[in-house]
Design goal:
- The protein is of the alpha/beta class and 278 residues long.
- It folds into 2 domains: 121 residues, Rossmann fold (3-Layer(aba) Sandwich), CATH 3.40.50.20; 143 residues, Cytidine Deaminase, domain 2 (3-Layer(aba) Sandwich).
- It contains 11 helices and 13 strands.
- A 6-stranded mixed beta sheet has the order 6-13-11-9-7-8, with helices on both faces.
- α2 links the parallel β2 and β3.
- α7 crosses α11 and α8 runs parallel beside α9.
- It is globular and about 55 Å long.
């Protein structure tokens, strides 16, 4: 039975990956790189370790000891955790940091992926076992967007793509075709809270894949925490990029969204372009 490595951050994505891999007959070796990963990981993993994100040398040594040759990275490692960890790197991590051209998200992650592969591991597509969690184009909730909301969705989609091109973030909050918030170092949930506050409720949240997204890391994802942030901030529409966004806890999220009259839909570039022609 093949072993798969999982470098895990915060959230349910690592759990979903682990369970999907188990269903396909794989053993899963989990390396938790943050203090508060889901406790289910430790309970259900075939082997579990907690190692700082800045200790790449120890991570590689552990994975090799376990006989892992393929791995993926899933779950949120907040920029605060990442930068705090990188303040105390081991020699392997220090070597990676010295080669960085800048400290943009993609630059850091690509450097880590390159180092992992230099060590002889193969880094898997994050979505390899999670395709069923990626919705197709359509409205997923009972409530449908109004014409004005569709216009904001299309505006936000284009804006999010532009921000992604600059490697700033994947999420934007818009209202009346004006940007209320753009995701930066604070992350998606705080971006939603800030945008909802500035928009005084009834704002539209749009999350897309970055242009030329490397699917080995940072694939966009939404779940129950995303919806809770929308409820807390008064945002009432969530649009994600169809077949590019991992949507976890779908049943619970949609049930809660319907109770709170929040719209959730999936769109793609072709859909947005077609709406422009109307």
């Amino acid at each position: 039975m093949a072993k798969v490595g999982l470098i895990a951050g915060i959230g349910v994505l690592p759990v979903e990956f682990m369970r999907a891999a188990h269903m396909l007959g794989h053993q899963v070796v989990v390396i938790s790189v943050v203090p508060d990963t889901d406790p289910i990981l430790e309970k259900e993993a075939d082997a579990f370790y907690n190692i700082s994100v800045a200790k790449l040398g120890k991570i590689f040594k552990t994975l090799k000891k376990e006989g892992v040759t393929e791995l993926t990275m899933l779950g949120k490692v907040t920029k605060e955790i990442l930068y705090k960890g990188l303040s105390f790197p081991d020699l392997k991590t220090l070597g990676v940091l010295k080669r960085l051209k800048n400290r943009k998200d993609d630059t850091i992650m690509l450097a880590i992926v390159d180092e992992i592969e230099r060590e002889g591991f193969s880094v898997l597509d994050q979505t390899v076992y999670l395709k069923p969690f990626m919705p197709k184009v359509g409205v997923l909730t009972k409530r449908q967007p109004t014409e004005e909301q569709w216009q904001d969705i299309c505006f936000g989609f284009e804006l999010a793509k532009q921000m992604g091109q600059l490697d700033i973030g994947q999420t934007v909050v818009v209202k009346h075709k004006a940007a209320m918030a753009i995701e930066a170092i604070e992350g998606t949930d705080k971006c939603i809270l800030r945008g909802g506050e500035l928009g005084r409720g009834e704002a539209v949240v749009v999350k897309t894949e970055k242009p030329n997204q490397d699917v080995r890391f940072d694939v966009p994802a939404v779940g129950i925490k995303t919806l809770m942030s929308m409820i807390d901030s008064g945002c009432n529409v969530l649009a994600v990029e169809a077949e590019k966004t991992i949507f976890v806890q779908q049943e619970d999220v949609l049930e809660m969204a319907n109770r709170h009259n929040i719209i959730i839909c999936a769109v793609d570039q072709a859909f947005v372009d077609a709406r422009k022609e109307l």
